[in-house]
Amino acid sequence: MKINEHFLNLKDSYLFATVGKKTAEYKKAHPDREVIRLSIGDVTRPLAPVVIEAMHKAVDDMSRTETFKGYGPDQTCYGYDQLLDSILGSYARKGVTLSKSEVFVSDGAKSDCGNILDLFSAENTVLLPDPVYPAYADANVMAGRKIVYADANEQNGFLPMPDDSVRADLVYICSPNNPTGAAYTREQLKAWIAYAKKQDAVILYDAAYEYFISDPALCRSIYEVEDAKDCAIEICSYSKTAGFTGVRCGYTIVPEALVRGGASLNRLWARRQSTKFNGVSYITQMGAAAVFTEEGEKQIGENIACYKKNAKIIADCLDRLGIWYAGGKNSPYIWLKCPNGMGSWEFFDYLLENANVVGTPGCGFGKNGEGYFRLTAFGTEENTRKACERIAALLK
Predict the structure, then answer these.
(1) CB 360 within 8 A of CB 345
(2) Nearest to residue 284, comparing CAs of 91, 112, 80?
(3) What is the DSSP string of 46-115?
(4) Confidence at residue 362, expressed as pLDDT on a 0 to 100 scale
(5) Tens digits of residue pLDDT in 252-289
(6) Buried-exposed string 331-368: b where 16+ CB fall within 10 A, e elsewhere
């Protein structure tokens, strides 16, 4: 019997587990100190009332014989019509036309970012930005794929552009980006689509933070760009859009037009999901279906506005301190340059010990993250202001 030896090539610990462990050790050693966490991107505001109402109704449906739901629709990888109609409506308002057969409901974007790799040979080469969300890299290391990196740095605003001399079969793009908060313009995405078509590559486009975009020069969906349906799969999440981090629901768009190796990736993904996935619960789907209604978008917009206000509070603090950063405007993440030439983990320890504030070391996202640090806007406004006051007092 042999194990998958590629797992042995992973780093010993997932980045956020290490952050959590160091934070817990500090709190145990200093139980009298209030530690504020601006590290992991978990939401703090409750679900919108319209979502709660829809989920309560769905629970009631499950209590009556005539409305009880067991397994979902025949193709459980798609979803109930109420949810699919809601998703299609949200795309229509972005100027994008989709069919229900192109929408696959999932238990979250993180799962699909890894599971989608089942469609592609382990011999394919994967192009990732550096720094990058660790799960992208880890999922491909587990499969034994060759990974090449596009350098994201301060000079290009942490938005690397394609290089035709670099060969790749799969390209991960997250915009607005985790961890850097930087977001590609429409013109920049056009360049990536042209690259993918030239390479016969597929773009895996993570749009988990699209609802934080307010700049009209930026795209909420890659399908707003011409020809994207020929080369891109879009992976979306309700986690940050609607606070579903503890509820778990997302959706992935695999266009009918996307064909590689003579096969429809849409049909392959439907086959994969129907074999390995039994769908998302009826109660969760009904809650998600309420998100993109008129009242739902109004209510989730109010929550997102609170997080964007927190991002501005952090950005204003860094502006006053003269610290360089990216993100914070169309994103819940602020990617700052560690002051005084500190290393990422050095600054983590310094901030934790002297301000009792927790962030995420940039080096955990790749070699280009060394010397940088991520803060999130997902805390409460009170804690965000308090953390900024502590940071300002420490670094002024």
Answers:
(1) no
(2) 80
(3) PPPHHHHHHHHHHHHHTTSTTT---S-SSSTTT--HHHHHHHHHHHHTTT----GGGEEEES-HHHHHHH
(4) 97
(5) 999 999 999 999 999 999 999 999 999 999 999 999 99
(6) bbbbbbbbbeebbbbebbebbbeebbbbbbbbbbbbeb
- Please check whether residues 227 and 259 belong to one and the same domain: yes
Q: Residue 75: what pLDDT? A: 62
127-136 residue pLDDT tens: 999 999 999 9
**Which candidate, 333, 340, 338, 349, places its Cα nearest to that of 372?**
338
50 and 289 Cβ atoms separated by less than 8 Å: no
How confident is the model over 304-325, as pLDDT tens digits?
A: 999 999 999 999 999 999 999 9
Look up tokens 């319209």; give the residue: 50
Residues 225 and 92 in one domain: yes
User: Of 254, 277, 294, which marks where a domain is finished?
Assistant: 294
The encoded tokens of residue 292 equal 């993109």
**What residues make up the domain containing 252?**
49-294
